[in-house]
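Lecture notes, unit on protein representations.

Consider one protein chain, 197 amino acids long.
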Amino acid sequence: MSKIYGYARVSSKDQREDRQIVALKHFGIDQIFIDKQSGKDFNRPQYKKLIRKLKPNDVLVVKSIDRLGRNYAEILDQWRIITKDKGAAIVVLDTPLLDTRQRQDIIGTLIADLVLQIMSAFAQIERDFIHQRQAEGIAAAKARGVKFGRQPLPKPDNYPEVYALWKDGKISGRKAAKLLGVSNFTFIRWTRSNAEK
């Protein structure tokens, strides 16, 4: 008896997969596998588990092709593994032409393979554009004087006195940090900034 599996993926633990799950459940899935990590490679535990379970004539359903990944060569490789090596079908809900259950003759396979190559290429191009836009945005923000990262911790009012005690060897660095209510690392960083002045 063939099974219908769903696969959903979000890029990080804070993202939600609800939209994908709703679409997959409407398809009548037997079991859904979910990964919460980047699609840049196929080292995903739930995806690997799903691939091991796939048998000939099973069906794998995904919401969109980029849920499998965003790397052109890897998507094509996984498509081949699922459809040729495993003998399972793939249904991509957002792209009806990517439904290998339809027309399993040579023409159907050719159409699905062509559409897959085009969609995979677009997925990788979009990923490259996202990285380029991020880099341009960061560069523009830096040019405007925007600082990235955490704001430096302000030195407490009693810093000069505590620093003087430490510099004179009257207290240790750990004791100084404790008196200032900061970590030892922060105190050492502050002393280095004093020495550079």
